[in-house]
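Training component of the fellowship. As part of building independent skills, the fellow (R.M.) carried out the full modelling exercise for a liganded target. The chosen ligand was protoporphyrin IX containing FE. The inputs are recorded below so that the supervisory panel can assess the work.
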Amino acid sequence: MRAITSSISSQLLESLTLGRFVCVAFVFTITSFIIDFTWKPRYPKSLPRVGNGDGILGTVRNWFGYIMHFNEWVDEGYEKVSTLAYSAPDTTLLTQGTRLTTAQYSKKNRAFVVPSAPSRPDEIVVPRSQTAWLLEFPDRIVSTKESHRDLLYNDYQFFGVDDQFPIITMHKHLARNLVGLIPGVQDEASGAIDATFGTDTENWRSLNLWEAWLGIVPRVTNRILVGEVTCKNQEFLKNHVAFADDVVRNSFILNMFPKILQPFVAPLIVLPNRWHWYKTYREVRPLVEQRLHDMERKLAGDPKYDEWEPEEDLVTWLIRQAHADGRVEELNASMISKRLLPVEFAAIHTTVITGHGILLDLLSADPAKGYLDALREETSRELGAEGGCWSKNALSRLHRTDSAIRESMRVSHFATGLTHRKVIAKEGITNKVEGWHAPRGSYLMLDLAGTHHDADLYENPDVYDPFRFSREREEYKARPQDQKDPAEALRVQRLGMVTTSDEFLAFSHGRHACPGRFFVAHELKLILAYLLENYEIKPLAERPKPLWIGQTIIPPIDVKIEIRRRKGTV
Ligand code: HEM
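Fellow's submitted model of the complex:
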């Protein structure tokens, strides 16, 4: 028997030429994609499509086209479909299932379908006028969590640990602790900037701007996640950054693999995630174990802890929330270190890309306009009025700085869309305005890029105009008291960077809008204020351009800046 088996095996091996191997791999991959195709939701024919159509050939062309053309497709759809916002859609045409011509649907405020990466279903891009319709569905019908889970392959990349507990904890605890966190964040920002940009007042230094932001943001952000000591631990920070890189890279790779192969491929691809998580765990474990012990003693009424209060950071909030909910399984260092992962991921790269974009926009603006000096005048004035220590009120008076950040997030967006939702209700959802039905498993998104560059919403939409949102706020502030009224005050206040709307989607919108944005506003203002106060930076000749792969931005990470410490500031 053994002889027969070994003879069959050797015959098989002999017949396995390279050509045959490539053929088998090709047929296997195509079959996997065909099986994938049958799992994907079917969208009504009445929905206009961009890209190369939905036939077999068109679908294959879309898979390749996705890498280079996704943004163009969405742009094209926005122009064709949404330019005439709020015009009444012609639902008779839709219910008859008639395919509209370009000329017809360009005049309608219509949803359209954009092709996606091979393993993902195509997405329905919902027009701006229907933002509220999309975002007001309960989570059990249209889910944010499930769309993030699929987009980032959470089950593999975050080891199947559900991300809702830390997200709910952030929603509950961050805002109420924000004011008390400001002095620590200010401290961390100045320490991190000094360490990154140096204190030499004589010589100009050439520095890679991306690396510089990576030297600042992880430390400053971690002040509110793991506290004063661990936020300076370079090994901990380095491995969280590496973990976030793993997630972005692996999501892209897995998007290109057929779904039925993912259970075999993903566990291998995410090995670096495991390694980088383990290294963060090793560093944070002593802190978490001590905190768990101290908070337990305090709760038990140990008199030694009467005067003791835990540091306010995410580790404390997770422990507090777990005690409040009676979730004992949360109360160990390994689990808490895994709970940190989704928040670190949501917080670090988003802020680094945003900070990087702000400086690129400011430094490449015409120096004759004096934007940097105008910002510095504002931050010096407000900091001086507070005696050198930032407060919530002083930060909220930085209208120009706020506007320069918001404007950069508008014009230099880092994703085509940041609001993705998945239909999870068995019966799907129906859009009554346009008359289409999206079955279970459909993906819907809002078009951030198109909205932020819409000339009907923003004058000169492609120009970086840092004080676009502050001019009105400053003008209102300067008015005599008798010309001010509460409604106008609210309107101008809503020009601030933390206000989300269907016109400004950088933090998304609705009840899942980024809970970290109030912190980010403080963090970025503190960083910019310290930087401008203490350093001179040479302008850039032009705005370096990013690259795009599908929906993923590759920022211009090799840009260098010339920087020197101002005299008399050390
Ligand atoms: C400039 C920096 C940031 C940007 C542009 C940003 C943007 C976003 C966006 C677009 C979402 C998705 C919301 C949705 O799906 O509708 C989000 C979610 C989230 N962000 Fe941020 N974020 C930033 C920084 C932060 C920071 C610093 C933290 C934490 C300290 C944070 C914590 C979160 C969390 C926990 C969620 C999940 C919210 C949920 O699903 O309910 N973010 N963020």
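The panel noted the following from the submitted structure. The CA atoms of residues 253 and 269 lie 9 Å apart. Residues 164-413+458-502+506-565 form a domain with the Cytochrome p450 fold (CATH 1.10.630.10).
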